[in-house]
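Quick start: read one record
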Amino acid sequence: MTQILLIGTELPLLEGLAQSFAILGFTPHVASSIAEGREVAVQHEPLIAIVSRVLAASATTETLSIPLAPGGALMLYRAVGGTIVTLSPTLQRAVLADLTLPLERNRLVAIVQHVCDRAKATGRSYPHPPESADRI
C-alpha cells in the first residue's frame, strides 16, 4: 500500500484528508510537527509528504530532509484563510504542488494518483528490491 504523510497543525483538515486517502486505498499517517513527521517517515517511508506551508517555511532544511520512497514527492498546503508565507527558492524548487485546502482537494487526489502511477510505471513502487533481484 502507498504511504502518504500529512504534516500540519490543522488536525480536522488533515484527519478529513486521511480518511479520504484511506477510502482510496492509501495508508495515511498524520503528524503535527516536522520532527514527528520525520520520525514517522523513517518507520513508514511515504511516497508523498503533504506539509503545511507555514511549518515548511519555518523549517526548510528539516522539510527537505523528510525521507521519501523512490519516486516520491513533496507537496505543500495552506488552509483557506491561512497565513501566506514566503518560501525559500530551494524549497520552491523541491515542491511538486502548493495547494489551498480543502478547495483544491480534487486536484490533490489527482496529483497523488499521478505520482503513484508514475512510481509504478518507472518500477519505483517497491520499497525493497523485487524477489528476482535477491536471487542474483
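Confidence is low (pLDDT under 50) at residues 127-136.
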